[in-house]
Write a structure and sequence with these properties.
The chain contains 2 helices and 3 strands. By secondary structure, the protein is of the alpha+beta class. The protein has one domain. A 3-stranded antiparallel sheet has the order 1-2-3, with helices on one face. Strand 2 and strand 3 form a beta hairpin. Helix 1 packs antiparallel against helix 2. The longest helix is centred in the first third of the chain and has 50 residues. 21% of the residues are buried.
């Protein structure tokens, strides 16, 4: 019985350590990309929920104004001066409806103090502008402005 010389190469079987490490690296990058996509999706879903809540709150105030006494329209003004979002100026509203509504805003939106919210009422034209401002953690403040024509019902 003769043996073959050992110089003949045997066919390679299995994976080398380098191939396993490269495949592990590719898999890890894929998992990291999925985690980044999930984080972005969560952030966008949170932003959409907060904008929806802000829209609902603005609509609530407009509805409450619609059924209120039209002669008290100017009382709904809350920090009506200033055009920069999230830093209005002027006196706060003394209207009980607005005060209650500001409490709801603070309860439903993150970091939404009453001093950053603005309600402007032009009693002559019925034009009402509601600007809501809130902030998530260290992110830039977000705001929503809703302008509507309110036609008060005269008694």
């Amino acid at each position: 019985m003769r043996r073959r010389p050992s110089s003949a190469a045997a066919p390679a079987r299995g994976f080398t350590l380098l191939e396993v490490l490269v495949s592990l690296l590719v898999f890890s990058l894929g998992v990291l990309a999925l985690v980044a996509i999930q984080a972005t999706a969560t952030r966008m879903a949170t932003d959409a929920r907060e904008r929806s809540t802000a829209t609902f709150l603005a609509d609530q105030l407009l509805a409450r104004m619609l059924i209120s006494d039209p002669h008290a329209a100017a009382d709904f003004n809350h920090r009506p001066s200033g055009s920069t979002a999230c830093s209005p100026s002027g006196p706060p509203s003394s209207n009980a409806v607005v005060s209650g509504w500001l409490g709801e805003v603070a309860a439903q939106l993150p970091n939404a103090p009453e001093g950053q919210q603005q309600v402007r009422v032009d009693a002559a034209t019925g034009l009402v502008t509601v600007r809501l401002c809130w902030q998530n953690g260290n992110e830039a403040p977000r705001y929503l402005t809703v302008t509507n024509q309110v036609q008060w019902q005269l008694p």
